[in-house]
Design brief:
single chain; 399 residues; alpha/beta; Aspartate Aminotransferase, domain 1; Aspartate Aminotransferase, domain 2; 2 domains; four-stranded antiparallel β-sheet; 40% helix; 16% strand; globular; binds 4'-deoxy-4'-aminopyridoxal-5'-phosphate; binds glutamine
């Protein structure tokens, strides 16, 4: 297996063996490249505009009123836990007890780490959909687990999961499935039928599931269905989400886990020794954000959907093969039709110089690097004029 993260790194002689393969994350590397070169950053997925003003004001009010300026309660402030439970009920008809079945975390990142540290025994196998978000591999390693990738493959303009491959990847040592839908970086949204099949497998093989649903509100084609809503899944599933994407405040790092009481108790045990608590005043603001009317969520989806179209169409016109995402912030492309290098790393390192744009090589999200080599990810959570400028620059590439 090769390193799933960045590569142009200084040596780290003191780093332990579990983490030896993990360099600097690709997001830090590529955002630094954007700053250094002044290129348009379509690499790291963060919006270039803040979320709703009333939510920002809610954070200011909380700070001024002295709410959350001292350690909030370990599981999160009650207002936010109630708002999360109400959101799950309203959107998906899922009932969670705000006191025992909801846990607030320092972003989805901490939720993923805490879930894996809590649930995985050293040597356990953890199945993750490849390409996978980079922190998955590092957290599986920190937990002493063994990652087993199941590869999503491009076909007919989108990435697909092969359910037979997933079934075949399960062994007696498999403890946990780590899923992500809508999926970063491919933009695939697992269908109801696929999720039903995964749920059946999890029940049949008695697996735990951690499902990362941070892009739950960013679905443009199809629908987001939480895995926890399928028969037999409620108690064995830790569902993770975050305010970063839904409310365009990625720096606040307010995330959460919902699940059965035993699941949340386990994750809470690990979480309390990671950060204990975080983001006090922001928790109150996110509680208000979750209660925004449906028009907010519909507006976000419509606006980002339009930006998806702008970027996906522009990339296609520039000569890329485009995998049109059904969800998320990201468009995955194949660079081979451009006629130059077919190595995404090389392409991304040269792109600021050639076109003044930064993107992410999908190979970093793979154990099987060859599978990801010619694919490159562009983020569209940027202002329309920024996307138009980037597309204009990229159109010069093929010439
Ligand atoms: N999971 C996925 C799939 C992501 O793309 C990201 C990045 N935003 C995260 C988790 C991390 O979320 P947070 O910023 O809330 O920690
Ligand atoms: N989730 C964001 C992405 O995929 C990046 C988050 C991070 O920088 N770790 O671009």
């Amino acid at each position: 297996m090769t390193s799933p993260s960045g590569s142009s790194d200084a040596p780290r002689p003191l780093l332990n063996r579990r983490l030896a393969e993990f360099g600097t994350t690709i997001f830090a590397e590529m955002s630094a490249l954007a700053v250094r070169t002044g290129a348009i950053n379509l690499g790291q997925g963060f919006p270039d505009e803040d979320g709703p003003e009333e939510v920002r004001e809610a954070a200011v009010r909380a700070l001024r009123d002295g709410r959350g300026n001292q350690y909030p309660p370990g599981p999160g402030v009650p207002e936010l836990r109630h708002a999360i439970a109400a959101h799950q009920q309203r959107r998906y008809g899922l009932a969670f007890d705000p006191d025992t079945e909801v846990l607030v975390t320092a972003g989805a990142t901490e939720a993923i780490a805490a879930a894996l540290l809590a649930l995985v025994e050293p040597g356990d196998e953890v199945i993750a959909l490849e390409p996978y978000y980079d922190s998955y591999a590092a957290c599986i390693a920190m937990a002493g687990g063994r990652r087993v990738p199941v590869t999503l493959r491009p076909r007919d303009g989108a990435y697909h999961l092969d359910l037979d491959e997933l079934r075949d990847a399960i062994t007696p040592r498999t403890r946990l499935l780590l899923l992500n839908t809508p999926h970063n970086p491919t933009g695939t949204v697992l269908t109801r039928a696929e999720l039903a099949a995964i749920a059946e497998l999890a029940v049949e093989r008695d697996l735990l599931v951690v499902t990362d649903e941070v892009y739950e509100h960013l679905v443009y084609d199809g629908e987001h269905v939480p895995l926890a809503s399928f028969p037999g899944m409620r108690e064995r599933t830790a569902t993770i989400s975050s305010s970063g994407k839904t409310f365009s405040f990625t720096g606040w790092k307010v995330g959460w886990v919902t699940g059965g009481r035993d699941m949340v108790a386990a994750v809470r045990s690990a979480k309390q020794f990671l950060t204990y608590v975080s983001a006090g005043p922001f928790q109150y603001a996110v509680a208000e954000a979750l209660a925004l009317p449906d028009t907010y969520f519909e507006g976000l989806r419509a606006e980002l959907g339009a930006r998806r179209d702008l970027l996906a169409n522009g990339l296609a016109e520039a000569g890329f093969e485009v995998y049109r995402p059904a969800g998320t912030y990201f468009v995955t492309t194949d660079i081979r039709p451009l006629g130059g290098t077919s190595d995404g790393f090389e392409f991304c390192r040269e792109l600021p110089g050639r076109a003044g744009v930064v993107a992410i090589p999908n190979a970093v999200f793979y154990d099987h690097r060859d599978e990801g080599a010619p694919f490159v990810r562009f983020a569209f959570c940027k202002k329309r004029e920024v996307l138009e400028e980037a597309v204009g620059r990229l159109k010069g590439l093929g010439r």
